[in-house]
Each structure stands twice: as C-alpha cells, then as structure tokens.
Specification:
heterodimer, A: 106 residues, alpha+beta, two-stranded antiparallel ribbon, B: 433 residues, alpha/beta, 8-stranded mixed sheet, 7-stranded mixed sheet, 16 helices, 18 strands, 35% helix
C-alpha cells in the first residue's frame, strides 16, 4: 500500500477533521428509540455549566439558540455525560442489544 | 440466544455463575470458572466481545501468561512494546525520557499492542473452548432477586438464574450502582479517553518511529496534548497502524473552556504527531470513560452471591507512570473466579465465603493501589500539566540555544518561589509515585 503524502482531507499539513467526518468512520446500528433522555428541559435551560456539551466526544449535545439539544444517534456509549452532569438530569442507559456502536479498532 | 432458553423464554438450567460483560475481566473469570467445571454463562451486550470497548493499545501479560503460558502462539499480537517514553510537551518542543529494553522483544514482559475487537474476541473463543457458554447481543437490564439476595439476571423479558453473579459490565457499571455497591460517579475519578487509529505500512511505522518490526512504542505525553489540563496524550504503534489519543480528566475538562472533540484534533497538529501520521489514512474514531480515581473509587467488591470485577469495580491503575486497566481487570476476574470455584465446592455463596475475594484483592492487587495511594492527589496538582511541561522545555531551550546570552548554572535559571515549589513537588512526586 502506498502512502498518500497529502493528508486525509487534502489540506496540506493538516490532519484535522470535523466531528461529523470522524463519526462517519464509526459503525452504528441505530435504535428507533433513544437510550438516553434528558429528564427535564428546564433544568438544562438554567444549567450554567452545560458540562455535557464540553465532555461528549461524539458531540451529541449541542447548543442551539441557548438551549441544549441532544441527539442519541451518534452516542459512543462512553458515559462521560452521565458522570459530568451535576444536576443528575440525564437518564442514562446503554442501548438495547443489538443496537449502538461497534468498534473495529477500539 | 434461542439455543440456551426453552419455549417459555426461561433458562432451563440454573448456572453456577453468570458473568455480566464479556471483556477481559469477565472472560478471564469465565475461563477459570469453566476450567474448574462450573456451569458458566457470559452475557455480552455487543455484537461480539470487544466491539464496545476502547483502550490505548497495550495488554500487559502477567495474568495472560498464567492463563495461557503459550499465548504467543495465537493471541492477536500487533507488536511487543519494547520502548516506553514519558514525554513533556509544549507547542513547539518536547522532552522525553526514553527507555528501551531489547529483552522485551521475545518475552513480552512489557506487553504487546493489540485492538480490543481482536483481543477480547480471541479471549471469548478461549472461554468457549474452556466450556463457558457465551451469549452475545444480550444486554442485562437488572439483577434478579430472591429473598433479598441476588439470584440471577434479567434481560428484557428473559430471566436467567445463577448461584453467583459476577459484574464485569465496565467503567459505567449501572448494575453495581443499582445494587448499591457503587455510588454516583464523581467526575474527579474519571477521564474521557479519545482515540484515532491511522493506517500506514509496517515499513513506514518502523521508519517514522525509528524501530524494527520486532519493536513497539508506548509514549505517554503530558502538557500540550490535553491543553495543559489534567490528563495526557498517548501514542502506540501497531504492526501497520498507529493510535493517537488523549485522556482528559472529566473534572478538569468540564470546568475548562475546551471541548473534548477539539482537544485530540489540536494534539494531532503538533509537529511531532504530524511527522508520525502525515498522509496516513484515518481508520476509526473512538472514545470511552476511564476510571482513574484509584483506591478512593473502588466499589464494594462482594455481597451475598455477587462479586464486582475490572473497570466496573474501578480497578484501573492510572498513576501517570503506570497506565494499566486490562491486566488488573484480568487479575481481578481470575481471583473472583477462583473464589467462586471454592464457593461452589462448599455450596455456600454467602457474603462470608465471597469475602475471600476482597481479602485476596487486598493482598494481591490493592497493595499496589495503596503503595500509590497519594498518586491521584499528586496528579490533581494542576502544575503537573500547566507548568512543568512548559518549564522543562523552556529550561532545555535556554540550556541549548545559542543566543549570545551567557549561560547560567541550572539552579539559577529557576526563580526564587518557583525553586521551592519545584523542590516541594519533586519530593511529593517521589513519595506518591
């Protein structure tokens, strides 16, 4: 196999990738019902830290119009949000089998 | 799992031991239990063992060797780790302590690199060969109780009965939490590990790292990789691949202005990392929470009919110089299974019998955690990450650079207050590590 001297994204000198492109490398079997639920939106609205947004490695928590928007589809089941939420406002579970993430090089 | 339950969806047999989680801890327990004739069931929620798991890259071999003296024959070994580096990095330079042992090439004393998808799957096959029943794609929702004691597991509409249950369900053990054996997780005791794997060729890995095909490198890097937050970066070599990753304390990260998704990308931009992975094709992005609180976060290890092993119990030694989860997980699985075998002989699965697990853990594993009990506190010192990596590199630059400024004695290059802080931290570090 030859080595492509350009970087993976074709921009010379940078290997940076945005999160959506990185998540596109991950294999998922997405359940039609979420395995994680934010218990009370009001708690998130008034939360100052919004730590979930900082710690989630799959960017499942994003801020839109000052509100935390959560989507479960890209979740890698790591648990960082559950551990970091002081408000205990995350009803966290693993996806039902056989759904969720499958790593090949974990 | 139709093959192991009857038409009513109820397991026809009661198992001697049901193990929740088919990772290194659970599978090691299964191998030891099955070899000793226990009717053993392993329930793994992933498509296959290793499919939900992430680690940096190295399996240390002490327990593996006890299980399989000739593991080298068919274990999925990528490279023996013959070189260990501890690196202090700032944005334009790095300073490494670089240790190489040519003896590690053949005996794997320092372990080997691999991927969990391969290693755990291999271990699962070994557990099956030993006689354990392994059901994949089964998520345990809760434990079954009878007369106030654990009597099995519940998965969806299925119930499975077992004389003993071993919880090996990983870093976020919802089951140990719901059984009251583990408290609510404290972000001060966990890091988030994020990893990217890159494809090169074997020759290119050798060339870029300055090694031969008989060698492999583990590099733990402090400072720049984590934006000078508590944690570190890592780089591991595989046969024709490289992993680059970061582990950041969740407590430090959540209170910072940084985002997990950006930290690893900026680490990849460092010239040292660039030289190692430029042009390489990225194969996968992965992440997982890592227990790193040491002794202060170990769960309750046993109770009537139940034992907790591996990450589920918080059994990771992450004291900076040491970074060991899988090996300790396997050792805990081995000890738990040996205790289960004895309990089965006595037909006594009570707390009293299973307390031997905690006693042996204390003597054989937790002694190491106790020796390093100050390490988590020492490693909480922000100066370790936001000051010393830069400091070491600045000192090196001052010593080496030819800028016409007369050189000074090393000790005079450090200013008054910093000198005492340095001496204090050095002494604390020597004591803690």
């Amino acid at each position: 196999m030859g080595i492509d001297r350009r970087c993976a994204q074709g921009v010379e000198g940078s290997m940076k990738m945005n999160i959506d492109d990185r998540l596109a490398l991950v294999k998922y079997k997405v359940d039609n019902r979420p395995h994680i639920i934010l218990k009370d939106d009001k708690v998130c609205d008034t939360c100052e830290g919004k730590y979930c947004v900082h710690v989630c490695p799959a960017s499942c928590y994003r801020i839109e119009n000052n509100r935390v928007i959560f989507h479960y589809e890209d979740c890698v089941e790591c648990g960082s949000c559950l551990i970091s939420c002081d408000k205990k406002n995350i009803d966290w579970n693993y996806p039902r089998a056989p759904y969720g993430v499958t790593f090949k090089f974990g | 799992m139709n093959d192991i339950r009857n038409e009513d969806g109820i397991m026809s047999d009661e198992f001697d031991v049901i193990i929740v989680g088919g990772g290194p801890a659970g599978l090691t327990a299964a191998i030891v239990a099955a070899r000793n004739g226990l009717n053993t069931l392993v329930l793994e929620r992933g498509e296959y063992s290793g499919s939900k798991n992430v680690f940096g890259g190295v399996i240390y071999t002490n327990t593996l060797r006890k299980l399989f003296p000739d593991f080298q024959k068919d274990a999925p070994i990528e490279r023996p780790i013959t070189r260990r580096r501890l690196t202090f990095m700032d944005e334009k330079s790095y300073f490494s302590v670089d240790y190489k042992n040519y003896g590690f090439r053949d005996n794997f004393i320092n372990g080997f690199s691999t991927f969990r998808s391969k290693f755990d799957a291999w271990l699962a096959k070994k557990a099956e060969d030993a006689g354990a029943l392994i059901a994949t794609g089964v998520k345990v929702d809760s434990l079954l109780h009878k007369d106030g004691k654990v009597s099995g597991v519940i998965s969806g509409n299925d119930q499975m009965e077992g004389k003993m249950v071993i919880l090996a369900d990983g870093a976020v053990s919802l089951l140990a939490m719901s059984e009251g054996m583990k408290g609510w997780p404290d972000p001060n005791n966990y890091g988030v590990g994020i990893k990217e794997v890159f494809q090169l060729t074997e020759e290119e890995v050798n060339k870029r790292f300055g090694i031969t095909s008989k060698d492999g490198i583990e590099d733990l890097i402090i400072g720049y990789p984590t934006k000078y937050l508590r944690g570190g970066g890592f780089i591991y070599t595989f046969r024709d691949m490289v992993s680059v990753g970061v582990i950041v304390s969740l407590e430090a990260l959540r209170k910072s202005e940084h985002y997990a998704i950006d930290i690893i990308e900026d680490f990849k931009e460092h010239p040292m990392v660039q030289d190692l992975i430029s042009g390489a094709q990225i194969k996968e992005y992965s992440a997982h929470a890592i227990p790193e609180g040491g002794l202060r976060m170990i769960s309750k290890l046993y109770r009537d009919n139940v034992m907790v092993v591996g990450d589920a119990a918080g059994l990771v030694n992450s004291s900076g110089i040491y970074l060991n989860g899988v090996e300790i997980a396997m050792k805990s699985g081995m000890i738990a299974a040996e205790v289960a075998v004895e309990a089965n002989k006595k037909k006594d699965y009570s707390e009293k019998t299973l307390s031997v697990y905690e006693r042996r853990m204390n003597d054989e594993i937790l002694i190491e955690f106790r020796n390093l009990k100050d390490a988590p506190y020492f490693l909480e010192n922000p100066r370790m990450y936001n000051y010393y990596p830069k400091f070491v590199n600045q000192m090196m630059e001052k010593m080496i650079i030819s800028d016409g400024i007369p050189k000074e004695a090393l000790i005079n290059m450090i200013k008054g207050k910093e000198k005492w802080e340095l001496i204090e931290d050095a002494l604390r570090g020597l004591k803690a590590l």
